Amino acid sequence: MIEKGWFCYGGDTTTRDICKLLPRPKVVNITVNADNTIATMYFNESIILDPEWNSTIFNVYITGPKSPYSMSWEVLDVDFHK
What we know:
By secondary structure, this protein is mainly β. The protein has one helix at 78-81, and strands at residues 6-9, 18-21, 27-32, 39-43. The chain has a two-stranded antiparallel ribbon with strand order 1-2. The protein has a two-stranded antiparallel sheet with strand order 3-4.
């Protein structure tokens, strides 16, 4: 059995598997609408939400010339992505 967050390959009855920790997804682009009310984040890979996912396990940190920023966020179409 391979633990979540790892990729393993090779190995057989006499040799061990080679396992590597999978990299975490990264944000590659963020766009903001004309009203500055919606920021859309694009990741370097598909993000798949599992049944245990909830908003408390996802952190967003924003820095810039007017820090600190205050924001709230939500995942759109959550049911579609589960």
